[in-house]
From TrEMBL:
FAD-binding PCMH-type domain mapped to chain residues: 65-237
Highest rank taxon of the organism: Eukaryota
Family matches, as SUPFAM superfamilies: FAD-binding/transporter-associated domain-like
Name the record gives this protein: FAD-binding domain-containing protein
Record Gene3D superfamilies: 3.30.465.10
Species this chain originates from: Rickenella mellea
Entry's family note: Belongs to the oxygen-dependent FAD-linked oxidoreductase family.
InterPro entries cross-referenced by the UniProt entry: FAD-bd_PCMH, FAD-bd_PCMH-like_sf, FAD-bd_PCMH_sub2, FAD-linked_Oxidoreductase, Oxid_FAD_bind_N
GO molecular function terms noted in the UniProt entry: FAD binding; oxidoreductase activity
Keywords: FAD, Flavoprotein, Oxidoreductase, Signal
UniProt entry tagged with the keyword Flavoprotein: yes
Signal peptide range in chain numbering: 1-20
Amino acid sequence: MLSLPTVPLLLAAYLGGAVSAQVTTDSHSAASKACGLLKIELPNLIAFPGSAQYGSDIAHWATSSVQNATCSIEPQTSKDVATILGIVGRDDIRAPFAVKGGGHAYNLGHSSTSGVQISMAKFNALTHDPVANTVTIGTGLTWDQVYTLLEPLGIMVAGGRVPGVGIAGLSLGGGYSWKTDQFGLTVDTIVAHDIVLPSGKFVHVTNKTQPDLFFALKGGLNNFGVVTAITYESHPQTLVFAGSVAYAPNVTDQFNNAVANFDLKNSDPKAQVIVTYASVFGQFSSSIDLFYDAPSVPPGVFDEFLSIPSVKSDVKTRKFTEFLSTTFGNGDLGIGPFKVAQNVIPVLKYTIPVLNQMVNQVTTLGASLTQKFNGSVVVVTCSAEPFTLPFAHSKGGAYPHPPSRQVTPGSPFIAVQATADPTQEAILANSVKQLSHAVQATAVQEGQSRWDDLLYPNYAIAGTPLTLMYGSNVPRLNQIAKNVDPRGVMQLTGGPKFGAGHT
Ligand SMILES: Cc1cc2nc3c(=O)[nH]c(=O)nc-3n(C[C@H](O)[C@H](O)[C@H](O)COP(=O)(O)OP(=O)(O)OC[C@H]3O[C@@H](n4cnc5c(N)ncnc54)[C@H](O)[C@@H]3O)c2cc1C
Ligand SMILES: *[C@@H]1O[C@H](CO)[C@@H](O)[C@H](O)[C@H]1NC(C)=O
Ligand SMILES: *[C@@H]1O[C@H](CO)[C@@H](O)[C@H](O)[C@H]1NC(C)=O
Ligand SMILES: *[C@@H]1O[C@H](CO)[C@@H](O)[C@H](O)[C@H]1NC(C)=O
Ligand SMILES: *[C@@H]1O[C@H](CO)[C@@H](O)[C@H](O)[C@H]1NC(C)=O
């Protein structure tokens, strides 16, 4: 991630001579200037600190992802978006800005800014094409909103697994779904993007009309413009057999055996699970979310999990949306404002030593951080995501997910109740890196991971090198970014950046 003060420097290096001379070195005054012009151009869409709109525009799932923007704005049309990009990117302004969909980015600055905060909230249309079996969704919607609209139509799309997550970020970064073993990552089910390019031009992107952009938008995040809508393949939806089961610490060994067996033996793409080891305020527990994409599950698939004595279990036949809301609520942690650090551990198969190491790390880090953050609730979790063949339906795209190397995104996460203490962020980041490293080291020893396995961009912690997320696609993505954004407008926003010659 670029820190904001470095943006003008990188631009200077990237653009060279004539243009760099016009780049303002004061991002604060650039933002003020942009906000002043936006107030004149789009007076009904802009908001300033203190207003309700501003509050919701800068809000994020995690407090640690929020920044106080100079102003915020909710474009309503692609023309509004073009106007905004025109102003922030003007050669004599070059204001930092951010584009926010669902606001669930884990990293500061990826969808937040001290400059102009763009919220896509008004792009909330959803249309269904029953002939083409596609659904077109505005990038201001969240997955739970989408599923609530689709369920009465008897269809679904392969989107996010937890309520509250935005369709935008998840779809532009990859997308692991309850349907991934059946249909692929979310990007594999996308047939078109509507985008406002950095030039202000509106383009409907398909593999036929714009193959480079189509490729780039499948994992390349906010580097190529502002996406206003995405078109997905839809699939019929029945009731599902799903729910979650929680276990006391005294059955962890039995549970780990069941997880390793499931990962090794399951070949039914309708069966998906998320395994979570958690330490909350120092208390350890394990749980599993079970999902079978039909009203009943064939014998054998989940039996081992269901036969272990549990402290809570609600697995049953139900509506898709009811499973999500019962299992995850609104997706919040329920501990008030919190700071987070998230990362990813690429794993082929979760063997027992790998699972034991997750348990061990969660337990010891949970204890030490609970002591360190004296009094604040600390949540340390590590999830195994034992997909069977998540890349079997890969059609390529910016985020490489080749069928030849089917790593799954093991998911370590740490949260703490937010205080004003500015050292919290660094402690969380270092701890989650330490946890990831320890678990991956065991997976490497087990032959289930390699240190150069690619990391899922939507989970990877800020600062992860581009090549560790995008591999050999980096040069092509840099070139596409330079072609589509010769003036480096999207360099003014945060997150992994292409086109600046950086890796
Ligand atoms: C509780 C929770 C559950 C999750 N579950 C899953 C899961 O099941 N599967 C999975 O794959 N991931 C999951 N994730 C990770 C998720 O994919 C990322 O956090 C993702 O960034 C969320 O998208 P968003 O729109 O909410 O985020 P935002 O913070 O709004 O945006 C994220 C990124 O997308 C860019 N962006 C947003 N809108 C646009 C736009 N219109 N045009 C261009 N760029 C844009 C932003 O600039 C930013 O770089 C989860 C995250 C959380 C917090
Ligand atoms: C952002 O603004 C709020 C409200 O004015 C303030 O409480 C908070 O400290 C500010 N945060 C930062 C990081 O400046
Ligand atoms: C395991 O712990 C649970 C919950 O504390 C308890 O109900 C159960 O009896 C314990 N089982 C064994 C075998 O000790
Ligand atoms: C921990 O919290 C207690 C009670 O709030 C306080 O008295 C103590 O000084 C704190 N210790 C540290 C190391 O912050
Ligand atoms: C685009 O089409 C080509 C040629 O049919 C295909 O090989 C490729 O996988 C497609 N790309 C995507 C991202 O769907």
